[in-house]
Amino acid sequence: MTDRTTRFRQLLGEIDSTPWGPHEQSLTAEAVALAQELGDEQLEYQARMRQTASANMGGLTDVMLTSFAWCLAHHDADPLRFPLDIDNGAADLMWQFKWMAATLRASPVFSSEQIAAVLDDMEAHYRRAGIGMSGVLTARFEDAWASGRIDEAERLRGLLETTPRDDYSHCDACGRSQNAGFFAATDRDEQAIRLVEEMIEGGFSCGEEPEHALSRVLLPYLRAGRLDDARSAHLRSYRLAKDNPDNLGIVANHIVFAAVTGNEARALSLVERHLPWLAHDPLNVDGHFALLSAIASALDRVVAVGHADATVRGADAAGLAPFFGDREGGWTASALADAASAAADRIGAEFDARDGSDWHAQRRARMRALADTRWDVPVRSDAFAVDAPSPEPQDAQGWYERAIALAGYGSEQDALAAADRVGDRADGGLADAEKRARLLGLRIGALTSLAQWDAAEALLPLRGEALREAGHPQQADLEARRGLALYGRGDVGDHASLEQEWADAAGLPSWSRGDIALTLAALRLRGDDPIGAVELTEHAAVCFAEADDERLVTASRMLRAMAWVAQGEIDQAHEMLESLLADDALNPGHRARLLEMRARLLGGAGRLEEGAADADTAAGILTSLGAITTLAETQMLAGALWDDAGHPDQAVPRYRAGIRLMRERDADVSGADFRLGRAMLAAGHAAEAAELLGDVLQREEDGGASAASRAMTAAVLGRALATAEEYGQAMGAYGYAAELHAEAGEPAEQALVLTEQAKILARFGEHSDARDLLEQAAALVRPTDAIGALVEVLHNLGQSYGGDRDERAFALFDEVLALAVEHEADWLVADVTDSRGRALIEFDRIDEAIAALLTAADGFAAIGDAGSAGGSELFAARTLAAAERLDDAVPLYRSVLDRAAEFPALRQVAALELGDVLDKLGRTGDAAQVRTLLDE
Length: 936
What we know:
By secondary structure, the chain is mainly α. It has 47 helices and no strands. It is globular and about 105 Å long. The mean pLDDT is about 95.
């Protein structure tokens, strides 16, 4: 008994220190079960009070209602043994009473009379306990609003505002959020926005705030024309709400936002991500209504922009059948839009019938009224796999040509799919025996590449018949002897049998000899014999030229280029690709493959933009051919090349399109998402990057990724959050990254993330704590040979010491300068010299400081960084002006103006400050002239 009681106490401690979520819920359930085993109702009361709060936060409505009813009954029977408040936050019975009416209101299975009885019971309990009526009025207001009794809700809201606040009133965050939601729902956008901005400016937060409040003013912001504020609110709110399945209404608001702001691909992605939430809580039917309405609206937009046939992944899950019905195959956007709309209408009618109002019908009408409304608020997080699907061939010949082109690229699955469209038969039912033979050969080759041996073998007799009918009996005999070996199977004995055929090939027709040589060349290349492969591709090209088959001449030369790359003969390979691409009659599949090969070679040679352009062209060809299964890799290649070329804005849409395609075939996208998140951050989309990188980190956690991998993701997440000015969350991400780097044995990387934490602390004036972190970082990095990390840490520590008038700063600057000189890092030489100048100012060594700053400016200028040069000179000029050396400051300000021609902000600041200096010198005319620059 004692051991189990001790365990119970331990469980309560764990529950109280664990964040809301599945783990905390399991601990709470364990505590309830253990108390029941002990037969101790007072302990069970302690556990169930926590369970009610836990279930409320996690959307476990049935658990919450059961637990609350048990606790209320025991309190009513014996208030002394089962007190209202157990001194544990939300584990207060009268506070929990506030959730009950809203919970019943959220499902039409509960009647209005039942809800009214709960409200009356709540009021009776409050009065009996001597509690003020603020909590009761709040619950009655929520009930009137939710059922569409708007006049009554307005009256109760006014009464609530005049009722004294007490311990059971909504907090500053929840009260403002609730009223903001009511104002937005009753067309008072300005008041809704004002309340939410009060909350944000005041730093008020609660369990689901500020994310709920921010989601409530998304449409008001849009209607007010405050598009940037709407975008910021969307990104912040969604990032906070996206992981709790109880947040159906919040996520519904975000889906609608994405749909009406031109972000249809993002809307589809959000729908797919949150569809499973519909099955989470069967009693949160009003949440289902909100999400289904949003889904219908969003998918209507997806259909409107040309993606009616896009597959909605996950919609066919068994748990969603009660909402959408059963369906053969997957759900398209068009079909699911109709099903979601019908489900929302059905649920809304059930609510309105219970409530005796048309409030849910009004909500549906408001949603439909948005159909023709659009605001342009780009959120760069998702993209359709193909912006505009290419027209499909209209006849068998068109599908035949497409299949040949796709096979030429090497897209086996797409080639097989196109071949299926030629006709009902395996040979397409084509009249031309030559084409039938070629189509069957395509099928056999594709199936062999996909290791579908039995299916490939089954087509060999048909291929033989077609070859004989087309006048190629010797090729038919050859394939009958060697079977799938001629299609590159590579089983034991296949290679040797082809070598024998090649040795005996003199009597065979040219095409057959070419076929053997090309297949054997591929096997040799696969077997790490590129020299042998080159020789055979030369023979193959000659044979196919004799047979007048230019398509396979190109294939032979293309394989030769691959073999040269494997040999390291890059120049020869590049020349071959250039020669092949110059042919205007080139098969489009071959052209796409050649462009992709050249893109990789150009990238390896540092010609990144040219390579990216080739990859883009290849992707365009593949899109036109409908090569969906292979397009992802080409899009990702294009993205990587643009990324490496320093154009993350170009990389982002390519990464997004590639990732969308990868998701459609259920591929692992964590690595690709990481690259996308990093590119989004570099392109200036920090908030979107933070959302995505947070998802990547969670997937890595769930998948058991290495500490080093998770550390890298957490560090980039921290940078994204800091750039998005979410500094508190950034500190947490950097702290986690530091722990993971320590676990992975990466002291230099750990030192760098500690340095980033120190920068944030310094920004908020916590200089002592920042310095402590930098000193820890220095101790970590010094024993390593990571020069870049050492320089970064020591430089920042020197700046910290300098700001504190600590002489140790200068020794660190000397050390960094020596490393910069040793490694010919001219920009760093200038930068650390600038830091020395700024530190000298703290010691009142003005002349030395000015000399250092001007030396830094010259250093920056020498390497073409006029902006940094102007920054150093501006600091020097300000220092002289502050020291009343105004005449000395004037030429420095003028130099800044000269340097700042391409930097408008720097130029305006310098002009403004120079004007003030000239005024102080009595040179008012010169001051006026300088200030004219402010109007430029």
